[in-house]
Amino acid sequence: LFKLLQDNKRLSDDVRWQRFVLAMQNRNASLARFVSRGMSAAMQKHTELFLAVDGNPRLVTDHKRFTPPSLFNQHIIAHGIQKLARREPQLAWQHWEKYEAEQLFEVTLAKDTKQTIIKQLTNKGFLDEAQTLLSYSHSIRDDRLTQALIRENLAQQNWQGVLSGIQLLDTEEQNSDRWQYWRARAQQALNTDSD
Fold first, then answer.
1. Exposed e or buried b for every residue in 140-173, given b needs 16+ CB within 10 A?
2. Which long-range contacts link 34-41 to residues 24+ away (Cβ below 8 Å)?
3. Which DSSP symbol is given to 170?
4. Residue 173 contacts residue 140 (beta carbons within 8 Å)
5. Model confidence pLDDT, tens digit, residues 95-144
6. Nearest in space to 77 (alpha carbons), one of 39, 37, 117
7. What are 28-43's pLDDT values in tens digits?
8. Is residue 20 within 8 Å of residue 30, measured between CB atoms?
9. Which pTM does this prediction carry?
């Protein structure tokens, strides 16, 4: 099928790039390399950088490497930041904030990247940072992420974190029996601690 499309000149660089990015997001570097073979020399430079960042996500900490801003670089940056977040979520967040100040990322790409950082900050125990990032914007809030953050705060008996997390849930979820119970429990624990 791929050869048929190629023979009939239906595979532009843009189409190949989209397929390349999807392959990389699905951790299929061999398919990504195959897709990139028919790209122009200029496009192959982008795919080589993408593959390099996939292998070494710390490359995204060198901002000069990703100038000037472009859609291609934004996909590479977001991919690298998400991979970096799995090992070093604080470093990923630090660099993501700088990139966001420099470039206007596509909404879905930015949202996915921020949610990945929040998830990894929570998983690695950086709960205050995850809470801060979640509280920045309604658009990146996700009840599953918020509930994971609240559960981590519960495990550490960080009652203020529990209360702050519950406030980030949507109103209907906040009013559920479960979260009303934990709100009351956290308030009780904070009042006991202050006595």
1. bbeeebbbbbbebbbeeebbebbbbbbebbeeee
2. 38/6, 38/11, 39/13, 40/13
3. -
4. no
5. 999 999 988 899 999 999 999 999 999 999 999 999 998 888 778 888 89
6. 117
7. 988 888 888 878 888 8
8. no
9. 0.84
